[in-house]
Design a protein that fits this description.
77% of the residues lie in helices and 0% in strands. By secondary structure, it is an all-alpha fold. The radius of gyration is 18 Å and the shape is globular.
Length: 148
């Protein structure tokens, strides 16, 4: 079953359960997916990887909104945004923790003989390709800076 189909099934379940929060979040993601499919202009559906990117983008935007809500002390909004992040994270693969990311990046650095800040771009390129969808870019960047 594709990720898009899982989202549609979850939307149906949320409708039946009358869970407005979940329904709104899933509809938002599905509408973004539909817009991207229209923008592709070739009549094909998005792949699971592209759908994951849409979900990750939505989570990232929600994190930014959450920061503004915390600055404004909007308790109800904070709760809603945290719930949305938690709900959308279910559709992504398990995120690696910092130690696992460090191990992978160390092996990239050692196997390619990188050393120093001048190789940061090369390491980031390889690390982002290998860890795509498994870890946030900010975490990868932080670990690369530590190790170089």
């Amino acid at each position: 079953m594709t990720l898009k189909q899982q989202l549609k099934d979850s939307m149906k379940e949320a409708m039946k359960a009358k869970n407005k929060e979940e329904l709104t979040s899933i509809r938002l993601v599905l509408s973004t997916i539909q817009k991207k499919e229209i923008d592709k202009n070739d009549g094909t559906e998005l792949t699971d990887e592209e759908v994951m990117q849409v979900i990750q983008t939505e989570i990232k935007q929600t994190h930014e909104s959450l920061q503004y809500a915390k600055q404004s002390n909007k308790v109800e909004m904070i709760t809603d945004l945290e719930n949305r992040i938690q709900l959308l994270t279910v559709y992504l693969p398990k995120q690696l923790d910092e130690d696992e990311v460090k191990t992978i990046i160390k092996s990239i650095i050692e196997s390619n003989g990188f050393a120093g800040k001048q190789d940061m771009g090369k390491v980031m390129g390889l690390a982002m390709a290998e860890l795509k969808g498994k870890a946030e870019g900010s975490l990868i960047s932080k670990v690369v800076k530590e190790l170089l």
